[in-house]
Amino acid sequence: MNQLDRLYRIRDMLQARGKVPIANFLRELEISRATFKRDLEILRDRFNAPIVYKPFERAYELEPHGAIGPRFELPGLWFNQQEAVALVTMHNMLLQLDQAGFIGPHLNPLIQRVETTLGGSNTPGRELRKRLRLIAHGTRTRQLAAFPQIGKALLERQCLLIRYESRSKNEVSERKISPQRLVHYRENWYLDAWCHLRKDLRSFSLDLILYCQTLKQACKELPEKRLEAHSNAGYGIFSGAVIGTARLRFSPERARWVASEQWHPQQKQSMDKQGCLLLELPYSDDRELIMDILRHGDQVEVIGPASLRRKLIETLTKAKAQYQTDD
Question: Is the pTM of this model over 0.70?
Answer without folding.
Answer: no
